[in-house]
Structures are given as C-alpha cells and as structure tokens.
Amino acid sequence: MNRILYWFRNDLRLHDNEGFVRALEDADQVLPVFVFDPHLFTQHPRLNFPKTAVFRANFLRESVADLRQSLRDKGADLIVRIGKPADVLAELASEIGASAIYTSKEITQEETDVESKLSTKLKPLNIDIEFFWMSTLYHVRDLPFTISRLPDVFTQYRHQIEKSVRIRPTFQTPETVSFVPDILPGDMPTLTTLGFDSEARQQVDQPDSRRAVAFNGGERVALERLNRYLWQTDLITTYKETRNGLLGDDYSSKFSAWLANGCLSPRLIYAELTRYENERVKNESTYWLIFELMWRDFFRFVALRFGTRIFKSSGIKHDLNRKFIQDETLFQRWAEGKTGIPFIDANMREMNATGFMSNRGRQNVASFLVSDLGIDWTWGAAYFESQLIDYDPCSNWGNWNYVAGVGNDPRQFSNGQPRYFNIYSQAMRYDEQGDYVKHWLPELAQVPADQVHLVPTLSIAQQEEYGLVLGIDYPLPVVDPTKWYTNPSL
Ligand code: FAD
C-alpha cells in the first residue's frame, strides 16, 4: 500500500491544487497535514510586536478550519499539529510508512529553511519529498527566460510573458479522498494557545464596525467573494477606475488575503475572468485585474531571483550607501498612527484595527516612513508582516524594496532617489473631502472638509472652533508639512 503525506502550507484549498491532486493519483492513501509553526508567533527580536498579529493568525486559523471541514465532507480529515514542521512531519510520515511527502514549493528564506530541515530528516528514513509550484498565475517552468535573466523592468517582463506564455488550466477539485485511517486528528489551536492575550482576542471577537470587509479565512468564503466581485455585482467592470479607493468594500477585489494563504488560486480568478469576458463584458478593467496579478507573480519571481537580498536594508540593489535611521520612538508614532499627519494616521489606524489597508494607503505610509522620516524601511516591512492579513513575503518585501528605492527597476527612481509621495497632494487627490480620514480619526469630526488635510497648521482659534487641541486631542506633526503645500510638485 503506497501512502503519501500531503503537507498543506500556503495552499489552503482543494480547487486547483496540483500537489494534492498528484498525491491522490500516486498513492493508495493520503494523509493531509497542517502544522502551526510556533516560530510564526514569536515577538520581533528588537521592536515590540508579534511576528504574526491577531488578525492574520485568526485568518489562518479560519482557513485551516475551513479546509478541514471540506476534507471531512469528503470522508477524510486534516491532521492538525503545533510544532516544528520538520520534526512533526518526519515523525508522522514515518508513523504511517509514507513513501513520500508532497507539498507546495515556497521560495523565501524561512520557508526554504524549513524545507531543508525536513529533507535532512527524511533522508535517513528513505522518504522522498516532492514540491509543486502552485502560487502564481504563470508557471515558473513556462517562463521564456531562466530566472537569472528575469527582466528588471516589470513592463518588459509583462510584454515577454504576454507574447509567449499560456496560463495553464486549473486542476479540478478532487471528488473523493482516500485517507489514512486511525491517526489522531488533533485539535485546532485557539488564539489563546497561539499566545494571544484577551486584549488581542477581543479585537477579533468584537470587530471594529468601521472595517471595510469582514475578512473570514477559507476557500469557501474566497469563492463567494470571487463570485460576488464578478458575477453578482459586476464590480469588476469598473475596477480600473475604482482601484485607488480608500473606503468600503467595493473599490478593489479584496482577494489578497485569500491569495496569500492559497485559499484562492490566481488561475481560477483568470479562468473565471475569461468566462466573464466571454459571457458578459470585456473591458480595460477586466484586463487590469490580470495586470495586477502579474505584478504579484513578478514579485514572486524577483524574490526567486534575488533570494535573501529582499529582506535586507541594502535591498535588491545591494545599495550599501543608503543609510536609514533606527529611531524607535519615531517608528512607534508611525506604527500607532500618531504622526500628526492625518492621511498617514488614518491608514495606519485602519491597518491596526482591521489587518487591512488599501494599496494607495500602503504606498503613502511606506513612502512617508522612508522618505520623510528616513527610518529603516525593513522595520516598516516587518510591521506590515505582523499586521496585514494578506501578508505575503514576496509582495510585501518586494513592494517595500521599490518604495524604499532599493528595488531592481531603474524606472522607479529619479536622480537615484525613490519616487517621492507628496502626502498632502496624495490626500487631496484620493480623499478630497476628508471622508476617509474622518472615518478613522473621529477626533477630527468637526474639522471642515477643506481643512482636514491641513490640520497640522490649524490656528488656535480654528482648533477652538473645531473642538480640538493639537498636542492633546490629536498629535502635533512629526515633520513640517508646509513643504508639501508650498511645493506641490514634490
Ligand atoms: P486589488 O487591487 O483588487 O488587486 C488584485 C490582486 O492583485 C491583489 O489581491 C494582489 O494579489 C495583486 N496585487 C495588486 N497590487 C499589487 C502589488 N502592488 N504587488 C503585488 N500584488 C499586487 N499585497 C499582498 O498581497 N501582500 C502583501 O504583503 C503586500 N504588501 C504590500 C506592501 C506595500 C508597501 C505595498 C505598497 C503594497 C503591498 N501589497 C501587498 C500590494 C497591494 O497593496 C495589495 O495586494 C492590495 O492592496 C490588496 O487589495 P486587493 O486584493 O483589493 O487588491
């Protein structure tokens, strides 16, 4: 009897899961396993925040629970353990007499370190390990160049890909799963087991009513969201115009958290979009979602090409001359949304209260941290890693490299400097009436729309009129914002 252990990682779905389908084809019985790695729930070694904060931890729990339910509906189960993945998996594989472990291929350092440890443990047991590339729209083996020749410029990459590469079809969801019996399934860890205190748990139990979307983990909800964004509401047809929005559920797809955990396959999005284009509407917006998914792919291939460089201050460029400051007090004010710059603070407070921030917000707060405060961008990236429910090592650290000006695309820079965001101009462009800022900063409720982005410069009389004292009700600014008003081209 041939048995294979299938190790679920960031592929928490049954649709379009090549690795799992192959395991079912190659084995008489399969043991699906998920391991919660305690390393993911440790504290940042220097800054006082967890590697995985409560929203992402909860989204992961929900995704794993949903997968377990789907497998149970098929008469199988998901074995759940807490521990070092290499130890747990080697032990389980040996216990069931597995010939192999099948799993998805990851490429970033922590994930590949685990793979190496597992390989070392499996060798003396004579158990093979087989990896399946499953996270991107375009398969890595279909690229028309070797990874060392990946173009530096996204547009060049996109042109080459679009010209010559076909997106592979999706794999069907398996109808039945022949399952290794008599293995203790294991309990799902609670947030308490994962180390979260009552204050953190309360953020999940009593979600902030101002949040844009109720993000619940799992394949089921992901498929509902896909169906809603395309077929039920046709929101996809205006995506290109709305995608820079800040408020509400509808301005962008909100697929990211499900993509990051693998609850949703990018190829399924593509297949559904193609069907939608054939049956309903094909326009610039339907294409633009694919365009953004190509950015996601690009960052994954960039990480594959440049390895650990994406995590270092010197970045992909390996620019050892770029100096950043490490000021913990200033960083803390940025992280808590207390910089005194309303557009920055509103975005940071949204992320802290919900685990999500729009793309426009991310660009601005990241640029502000790096270019206005001069703080080490890797601190910002680590904080995003902690907070974002859609945290994805390649998209997060890759985007931060670009904003910090240490990325590999020469067109992102002018005069060797990263593209500078004038925060005031951005705020006026994307939140002209201040609705977004007031949504997250209730202390500014009485400030009139045309003053809300000018709060740092309000006179004493104005402050009195708007029921606000700067330095008490709302922080004084950490930078002088007048440079943005006087020089809009900045
Ligand atoms: P939509 O606009 O609906 O886009 C659809 C999908 O395209 C997204 O779900 C995402 O998978 C992909 N996508 C869109 N923009 C980008 C982009 N710039 N880079 C890579 N993929 C993109 N995205 C993450 O998924 N995880 C991260 O950890 C992450 N960190 C970021 C950090 C910074 C500093 C910045 C500037 C961007 C980051 N992004 C990250 C990219 C982007 O902000 C989010 O993917 C997007 O806001 C998610 O919302 P959405 O699903 O509604 O996006």
Radius of gyration: 23 Å
State the shape.
globular
Low-confidence stretches: none
> What would the CATH topology of the largest domain be?
DNA Cyclobutane Dipyrimidine Photolyase, subunit A, domain 3
Read across the widest sheet, the strand sequence of neighbours is 3-2-1-4-5
Offer a quick outline of the entry.
The protein has 490 residues and is an alpha/beta fold. 44% of the residues lie in helices and 6% in strands. Helix 3 packs parallel to helix 4 and helix 11 crosses helix 16.
Question: How do the strands and helices of this protein lay out in sequence?
Answer:
Layout: E1 3-7, H1 18-26, E2 29-36, H2 54-73, E3 79-82, H3 85-95, E4 100-104, H4 109-122, E5 128-132, H5 154-164, H6 198-205, H7 219-232, H8 239-242, H9 256-260, H10 266-279, H11 284-306, H12 328-336, H13 342-354, H14 359-372, H15 377-387, H16 393-404, E6 413-414, E7 417-418, H17 423-430, H18 435-440, H19 460-465, H20 482-486
Parallel strand pairs: 1-2, 1-4, 2-3, 4-5
Antiparallel strand pairs: 6-7
Helix pairs in contact: 3-4, 11-16, 13-14, 15-16
Bound molecules: flavin-adenine dinucleotide.
What does this structure look like?
- By secondary structure, the chain is α/β, with parallel strands linked by helices.
- The protein has 3 domains: 3-134, 3-Layer(aba) Sandwich (Rossmann fold), CATH 3.40.50.620; 137-172 and 217-305, Serine Threonine Protein Phosphatase 5, Tetratricopeptide repeat (Alpha Horseshoe); 328-486, DNA Cyclobutane Dipyrimidine Photolyase, subunit A, domain 3 (Orthogonal Bundle), CATH 1.10.579.
- Helices cover 44% and strands 6% of the residues.
- The chain has helices spanning 18-26, 54-73, 85-95, 109-122, 154-164, 198-205, 219-232, 239-242, 256-260, 266-279, 284-306, 328-336, 342-354, 359-372, 377-387, 393-404, 423-430, 435-440, 460-465, 482-486; strands at 3-7, 29-36, 79-82, 100-104, 128-132, 413-414, 417-418.
- The strands form 2 sheets. The protein has a 5-stranded parallel sheet, sandwiched between helices. The chain has a two-stranded antiparallel ribbon with strand order 6-7.
- Helix 1 links the parallel strand 1 and strand 2.
- Helix 3 (85-95) packs parallel to helix 4 and helix 11 packs across helix 16 (393-404).
- The longest helix has 23 residues, at 284-306.
- The protein is globular.
- It starts with a strand and ends with a helix.
- The model has no long low-confidence stretch (mean pLDDT 96).
- The site of flavin-adenine dinucleotide (FAD) has 29 residues, from helix 9, helix 11, helix 14 and helix 16.
